[in-house]
Amino acid sequence: MKPETLHAMPEKGCGYLCKKMIPIRYVKGVGPKREKILNRVGVFFLKDLLYYFPVRYQDRSHIEQINLLEEGKTSLIRAEITSLKVSQAFYGRKATIRASLRDSTGNIQGIWFNQPYLKDYLKIGLSYYFYGKIQRYNDRLQIVSAEFERLNSEDDLDISGIVAFYRLTQGLSQNNLRRLIRTCFSNYRNQIVETIPFDIRKEYNFPNILEALSGIHSPASFEDIKRSRQRFIFEEFFIMQILLFRRKAELRLKRRPALSIDHSVVDKVKNNFGFTLTGDQEKAICEVFSDVSSDLRNSRLLQGDVGSGKTVVASIAAFCVARSGFQVAFMVPTEVLAIQHKKTLEGLAKGLDLKIDIITSGLAIKKRKDIYAKLSQGKIDIIVGTHALLNEDLRFKNLRFVVVDEQHRFGVAQRALLARKGIDADILVMSATPIPRSLALTLYGDLEVSLIKEYPKGRKFARTEIVKEKERGKVYEFIRQKVQEGRQVYIIYALVEESSQEDLYPAVQMYERLVKEFKSLRLGLLHGRLDSRQKQSVLNNFKNNEIDILVSTLVVEVGLDIPNATVMVVENPERFGLAQLHQLRGRITRSNLPSYFFMIAKKDIYSSARKRLEVIAETCDGFKIAEQDLELRGPGDLFGTLQAGYLPTSIASSQDDLKILETARSRAFKVIKKDPYLELRQHKELNSAIKEYIDKGLLWQAS
Length: 703
Ligand code: ADP
Ligand code: MG
Fold this sequence. Notes:
Blueprint: H1 3-7, H2 32-40, H3 46-50, E1 56-59, E2 74-87, E3 96-103, E4 106-113, E5 127-137, E6 140-150, E7 162-165, H4 174-187, H5 198-204, H6 209-217, H7 222-251, H8 263-273, H9 279-293, E8 299-304, H10 310-323, E9 327-331, H11 335-348, E10 356-359, H12 365-376, E11 382-385, E12 399-404, H13 412-419, E13 426-431, H14 437-444, E14 448-452, E15 463-468, H15 472-484, E16 488-492, H16 501-517, E17 523-526, H17 532-543, E18 549-552, E19 565-571, H18 578-586, E20 596-601, H19 607-618, H20 622-633, H21 635-642, H22 655-674, H23 684-695
Parallel strand pairs: 4-6, 8-13, 8-14, 9-11, 9-12, 10-11, 12-13, 15-20, 16-18, 16-19, 17-18, 19-20
Antiparallel strand pairs: 1-7, 2-3, 2-5, 3-4, 5-6
The site of adenosine-5'-diphosphate (ADP) has 19 residues, from α10.
């Protein structure tokens, strides 16, 4: 499978649903044109459509009478437009639409500002639902900026109760979707099968699949919606967890030769390292040793906050494997990091006689081919690389151990893809993004976990401050003083994209300003558009203390290790997420020197952004920050960012929903324990669901 195809997952469709995967174009009412439109919202099969859940609902069972409307309330009325006036924007006046709305009890004015295009949807003589806030203007009530939807007489949809609203796209209206889903539901009822076994549904009082689908698309009550949602959340988690357990079991089906660890290697490395390992590091090393030496394959997650010293752990294990005559691959997200890792590894491996090399996509073809050849002949022991490692033409002689650093930057599928290049390879994934336990189960449920909670001895946390714009001068003064003392400084600039020159402009401009500001100091500029030679030379200069201040974009977020740089200033910190800020701060706590983290925040940033900065200022504990992140953003969003290409849909949206995950996990465990291959009759549909998943290549082939 090519890596690209792994990303091309449909957005929706967790559960196995229909006996046949019916492409959406065969569904009545869907022609080629609508097919394209539906594809845009992730609907490819009938099943996807049925699982295209509403994003919100409106209760239309309480329509209010115009003569009883009260000021200040948000109300729903059903009324006819009797007149319509559009005034264009004019010298600072906003464009306004005014409409007189009438029902059998009275009149009210509807008013919309700054949305002149709405006039195309409002027609005199037609009736609509209007939903909006009632306000008083002069002496009369108005309904302001109401949402509206046309009442369709030829429409056979009964939309007087609770009405579903879907995420739309151009060419698709709420009514289109409602009608389409309804038709599908009634036409294909008999094709829809149940995936949650009866006893589980009974135990938790979940509605069956038909009830649940109707409860989510055309609910009779809000209670209906709630029960249906819970069922679907359970279903999603349940299947996900079964997959995880299955995968874990499959990984361990085959035996391989055991491997014995040569402890003299460990001693040599420890010697090269020059520090004592922390207790947690020692423990993690033991755990990884037991993985790589075992005659069964293993996969493990090594979790430890930024700067907790994961690299050494992975390196020691890597050297032992390599010294036993097997190959090791280190996958990292960026070229900069690849180069740094290679250097670190070379330093630690002194005297071990290991061949370490690097592969990145920036490499010239000839050089790349040369590396491919050496890898397949076993002439390289340890290869460090970026995504370039996933290339189909890259083959190993005997890959036994795969290390994936900064795991959150890769998809699950990618790590599996790399591991598949060795028949018997173990995987160690390292993550510096601490993950709340509930989420960790979902994302990494198939992995053993090692934790590094202890920091290297004497490590100090960065003093963190939110700085007002007008105090910028003080920060600059502080920078001068620290440079005077011999320290180095990062100034980080937030950029949304680095793809074009234009986007980059602010950082470049900023750099020029700073060069003038710090006349006597040496400045460097680093960003994603530099080619790898330029990047490397800037970094080398910084590393060798030939640059005092490195002005950089997020390129430095991940893993960069320059202990003497102890001051960081972040511009536009509100543009970064919590995890990113935490990662950034991790760059300056790489030694026992005191360190300082300044976020220069403008006055007018959103309160949610300010909250993020306050969290960072309050704590350095990555796990606490992760919990806060979950709270501030909700799991749906986190799923997406924590793990590219993971289960893409998640109807779970609040932390409460995550509680269902624990239940789903324990039920899944029970099921797999009793019936590992899902052969029992009551698991037949579940088994098909899982198969479908695997067939689609979505995630989890045993690697
Ligand atoms: P991360 O977990 O973020 O990948 P690294 O492995 O890059 O952390 O280690 C962070 C820094 O701490 C490095 O400079 C490393 O050499 C140093 N370090 C790691 N372990 C120890 C230790 N036990 N004692 C002192 N310094 C350590
Ligand atoms: Mg690291």
